Automatic annotation (TrEMBL), chains A, B:
This is Transcriptional regulator. InterPro entries: ATPase_NBD, ROK, Tscrpt_reg_IclR_N, WH-like_DNA-bd_sf, WH_DNA-bd_sf. Belongs to the ROK (NagC/XylR) family. Transmembrane segments: none annotated. It comes from Virgisporangium aurantiacum. SUPFAM superfamilies: Actin-like ATPase domain, Winged helix' DNA-binding domain. Residues 19-61 form the HTH iclR-type domain. It comes from the Bacteria. GO terms for molecular function: DNA binding. One of its GO terms (biological process) is regulation of DNA-templated transcription.
Length: 389, 389
């Protein structure tokens, strides 16, 4: 032991950390030269040079050879994270549909599959639809389950530590479904089940209306209002996975809010209960007086539950998403005006930009987070799908 | 450059990190031997030996020589963090009092000073009381302002980024007070102003009823209810410092709750408004029927706002603190029963164990956090009071 401060074990760990630092830097930016990587990571150029070549050999990175260039001298080669080393699946199991997105490790969506499911479908039928959609995603992209590094499924209702919605779910018979086990029988990679509103919140921060914020209340507007919370940049689940369930408190009127739309006078009999809200929003846009009253009452009640979230958390931004967000043009301004009457500090109120893909995109993001976690804590020694432990 | 991975700069940084690791390890445990420190930190024994001696020379640590021992062989010397290298001040500026605690860098309270202030006192009088209490703390311990490494003051109302309670405060004329500036004219160390309920939450996790939890809703029970939130182990302030202000929402009835106590029939005329609640709690404990009804109504309304916090955050623990927590025996069980009717997952409900010192202790903790932050990010090169930047 020649240097008492710096043992062999310390050096080996340092080298591993430096490799991970470069992988992370590559993931977060366009193809970069050794000089650029040295600047971003604070490591020396010679160190980065050695590590980058090791990462190419190991399958973590590819070389982008310089093309024709107008600059004088030989342009430097660039390194790119090999995003196609693996794939992630993000799935939205909703009341009326199952939607699956397949994306590479940079989060680029390479395939989307979707199938309709009846609202009253029993768990067996809904799980069969899920299996069909996942199989279609793999088949149509020529991938197999071993290409999938992580898989996240969003469901309605608070999700506990075992991946079950045991406290509450509106999906028929779903309380007893062990979704994590069902998927673990089909995939060897990490499988995560998460609440749909929480995934919606993640998606808005990743690729939606809240990319610039760390403190976000995401509202899932629909026949059941829900919420997902990002605080100091991190999705918060609560101790038992039930954060954001303010809708259960009668006093804040979220249970009541959507019924103003459903009970609006003048909705034609031919319009089913699932489409009534859309009809009312359209009629309100056309100036129908009853419809405008119904929307006003909806927003007034929506604002009370939203105010409870805002007063509790003091977020920078409230994002209005979910199925009703197609009609955000009728909701955003009145919602802000109601909040001005109810809260101490009024946050920005924005409309979701992701529409029906929000939950699936959030599921992708959570799957990618899991890969990052494995990469930067447990360590992934080679670029192959991690096996669930 | 003989080793491309491990430059001189990397090594110097590694040595500094190792020193800080030892300082942190020393702060978090009783006096420790080199062998024990090596085990805790994962560093080699020779490395720890060198660093520990450097820390003694530098004034960060002291040596505890082994006393008479029954074990065979020479017992090893131990190292202790030199907690008296500096001090922190934690102050509670309340409606009726100013309380200041002086503690060493381990958080051991070495002196307490307190003075009564009239509820209707104007800012000038309240600031004069603050100055007197701080001066007393230093004078009676033989310390000067240069011994103070950080200072935190708790006040009522949401505190913004400038340390002002500009949105709301019940203290007369206090909205315009620049407390941070007032203190910065007297102290050169970092000065932090924070909301009293947030400090109460910190204190319960540090030395109170919630030491075992990372997800905590702290209720400040009093003539104004307040809340402080710890989520995933960290105090959350909100984007503008106004997190926890659920009491402002009429629908959740916190504004109403304490008035049931104040309006209770039978409170003698000789009992002033500030003491009415204490009288009612005592009468209820003695079986007075009106008083029991008033307490029941108080808890029922308290529970609705608490349910809004619990449904939003899904905490592990709710701690009932503040002035009314002296009567927690009458509140905890009924509050839990009300929550069982209102929320999806019922958290544990516990009484504060800190009483009137909670806010001051939380202020100490926040001051110590600031020192840790400087120590482990900016780096404190020598054990002397940091100068505010």
């Amino acid at each position: 032991m020649t240097d008492p401060v710096n043992t062999g074990a310390d050096l080996s760990r340092l080298r591993e950390l430096n490799s991970l630092t470069i992988v992370r830097a590559l993931r977060e930016q366009p193809p970069a030269t050794v000089t650029e990587l040295a600047k971003v990571t604070g490591l020396s150029r010679p160190a980065v040079d050695v590590i980058a070549q090791e990462l190419v050999t190991g399958g973590w990175a590819t070389i982008v050879e310089p093309g024709a260039s107008s600059t004088v001298g030989r342009p430097a080669r660039r390194y790119r994270f090999r995003a196609t080393a693996g794939y992630v699946l993000g799935v939205d199991v909703g009341g009326h549909k199952v939607l699956a997105l397949l994306a590479d490790l940079d989060g680029n969506v390479v395939h989307t599959a979707r199938t309709a499911v009846a609202a009253e479908a029993d768990p067996k039928k809904r799980l069969a639809a899920l299996d069909r959609v996942l199989a279609a995603c793999l088949r149509e992209t020529g991938k197999s389950t071993s290409d999938v590094w992580a898989l996240t499924v969003g469901v309605t209702g608070p999700v506990d530590a075992t991946g079950k919605t045991s406290l509450f779910t509106p999906l028929p018979g779903w309380t007893d479904v062990d979704l994590a086990k069902h998927l673990s029988d089909r995939f060897t990679c990490p499988v995560i089940v998460e609440n749909d509103c929480k995934l919606g919140a993640l998606a808005e921060r990743w690729r939606g209306a809240a990319r610039d914020a760390d403190d976000i209340v995401f509202l899932q507007g629909g026949m059941r209002n829900g919420a997902g919370l990002i605080i100091d940049g991190v999705l918060r689940r609560g101790y038992g996975g039930a954060a954001g369930e303010i809708g259960a408190l009668k006093a804040v009127r979220w249970l009541e809010a959507p019924s103003h739309l459903q009970r609006c006078p003048g909705v034609p009999e031919t319009v089913g209960p699932d489409e009534a809200a859309a009809w009312v929003f359209n009629a309100a846009r056309d100036g129908n007086r009853d419809a405008r009253t119904a929307v006003r009452r909806y927003v007034k009640d929506l604002a009370i539950g939203t105010a409870a979230l805002v007063l509790t958390l003091d977020p920078q931004i409230v994002v209005y998403g979910g199925g009703f967000s197609r009609s955000a043009d009728l909701v955003i301004d009145p919602l802000r005006q109601e909040l001005e009457k109810l809260v101490l500090r009024v946050p920005e109120v924005r409309a979701s930009t992701l529409g029906a893909d929000g939950v699936g995109l959030g599921a992708l993001r959570l799957a990618l987070n899991e890969i990052d976690r494995l990469l930067f804590t447990a360590g992934l020694s080679a670029p192959v799908a991690p096996v669930r432990t």
